[in-house]
Design brief:
Blueprint (H helix, E strand, L loop, with lengths): L12 H14 L12 H8 L3 H13 L3 E4 L3 E4 L4 H25 L4 H14 L2
Antiparallel strand pairs: 1-2
Helix pairs in contact: 1-3, 2-3
């Protein structure tokens, strides 16, 4: 499982791990019932602390994306994709709300924001 960690992003490492695993589950790259790497194995692969990977897995369990079976490991949970999609839309709305506030307070037009969004959206393909 490929996970890319950035030490300069300002986002805690456990959160980067959690977000990337969650994205792989939402995009169906990881399937329900699939065994995830052990905490120790993932920590070794990512060259980070086992506490960091443990925290990421615990957050995924709390959010319902992963289940744990004692003495067996962590598995991708069966998730309601509609709820997961709605959660992602909510995140986008919150971020765009911040963009609108910043744009309005700096007299940046909606057209300029749309232009920026179009460029960024195309770059991610």
């Amino acid at each position: 499982m490929e996970i890319i960690i950035s030490n300069s992003s300002g986002i805690p490492i456990y959160e980067q791990i959690k977000d990337q695993i969650k994205a792989k589950i939402i995009t169906n790259e990881l399937h329900a019932g699939e065994l995830l790497p052990s905490i120790r194995s993932l920590a070794k692969d990512l060259r980070c602390s086992v506490i960091t990977t443990k925290n990421a897995y615990e957050e995924l369990v709390k959010e319902g994306y992963v289940i744990t079976i004692p003495a067996k490991g962590f598995y991708v949970a069966e998730i309601n994709m509609e709820i997961a999609h709605e959660e992602q839309l909510n995140k986008i709305e919150n971020l765009l709300d911040t963009v609108v506030i910043i744009a309005k307070s700096n007299n940046i037009t909606r057209e300029k924001i749309n232009e920026i969004l179009d460029i960024l959206y195309e770059e991610e393909k």
